[in-house]
Amino acid sequence: MTENQITRSTRFSFPQWLRRQAEISRSFSYSQPAPARTPWDSAGKKALYPLAIGLVIYSVAVLGVNGSITDDFSTVYNALRRFLDGVPVYNETYYFVDPHYLYNPGATVLLSPIALGTHFAFQRLVFIIANAAAIIAALALLTRLFGYSIKSAVFPLVVALAFLTEAVRNTLIFSNINGILLLAFVAFLRLTLDNRRWWAGIIIGLAIVVKPVFLPVLFIPLVLLHWRTLCAALGIPIVANIVGWILVPGASEYLSRTAPYLKEVRDYANSSLRGMAVYFGAPTWVSAFFFVLFAGLVIAGLLFLLQWRSKEPLLWIISTASLLLLAGFFLSALGQMYYSMTLFPLLFTVLLSRSPMHTWTAWIGALLVLAPFDWTSSYWPVVGPWITTFQATFGWGLLIIAISVSAMAWRQADLNNDAALKPSTA
Q: Source organism's superkingdom (predicted)?
């Protein structure tokens, strides 16, 4: 072969690349293993079900019902009542540190059934129970997705562990919608693996209407060329907001008042990298340096993970989705620790033969973003609250490092194996 022929054969061809991506998309599939049991199911369930049930009841009936000063449900309920009563919705004073109503007009219409009744305490309790049930349902889906029966001891174990986390506890205490969003996210992963593309797009589209933090996960259907998923996932928020713009009183104030506030990096209750920089008054160049560093690490991780699309689709979709969400939590204007509930699927990958969760770095990160630690102490009255607020920042950063570096290490290991298998030319 001549030098020109070698150059032509190795030159990048976009049509060939696109055909290759289409082949990968057509071959993308995941066969869920038959539900497995464990040798310790009988004894394990006797110990774990009372523990799981007790933690669920305590989390709902005591922690959730008692609530706290931070009350997301009241904020949402009052805003939705204003919508139903024909009163302008976006009329809050954003200089206060109270919880604010930040949902877009489309989400306002979608969530409006929450405020249809006038029995506030009862509706709040129903909402808390619905979120707890959604969390349990999401864990059941994940248990099956990873090959275990919900009749095995694995299911009560993961329920018990989940209801010990800060994310689940504060979701119920603050009475917000994150439990339902976790179920939607897990359903999207499952539907994508099953190639049920319209339904995957509808589910994630509804989640995006409520929480645009899920928008980056559309990278997954994009690289799979799942156009139906993308159309549904993008179309639903657009249509919902058009309807909301027509129906919600004072909808234009969302753009003039709320959107500018959302772009600000607040210096309280904000665990994002930029929030940490603002809180400590770090120089702009320091914040920019770490932003670019971690953004580059995320991009590298996403690219190195691509090789596992067809080889290990379950590992790929969950690692990729988790990395995208972590980038949003860590690099955006606002990151709050209870967002980490959406990382539950990542923890399940420890059951696979290959996983970022096979590293100590990942588990330190998971501990920091999920443990309900409060470091406040009379012995360190200043440092303690700092650690409590920003432990999630360090945890998200460690998880980004763990996923991206693991993907790079897997690629290097494959290259080394390929080199070892090549016959010697000596």
A: Bacteria
CA-closest candidate to residue 277, choices 390, 403, 165: 390
In whole angstroms, what is the distance from residue 416 CA to residue 33 CA?
30
Cα-atom radius of gyration of the chain, to the nearest Å?
23
233 and 272 share a domain? no
Note the pLDDT tens digit of each residue in 222-250.
Answer: 999 999 999 999 999 999 999 999 999 99
CB of 70 closer than 8 Å to CB of 174? yes
Query: Model-level pTM?
Result: 0.93
**What distance, in Å, lies between the first and last C-alpha atoms of the chain?**
22
Q: In this structure, is residue 387 part of a structural domain?
A: yes
CA distance 1 to 240: 58
| The amino acid at 357 | M
Structural domain harbouring 190: 34-263
The tokens for 122 are 């009862």
| Same domain, yes or no: 99 and 207 | yes
Q: Is residue 20 part of a domain?
A: no
Query: What's the total number of domains in the chain?
Result: 2
Task: Give buried/exposed letters for 204-226 (b at 16+ CB in 10 A, else e).
Answer: bbbbbbbbebbbbbbebbebbbb
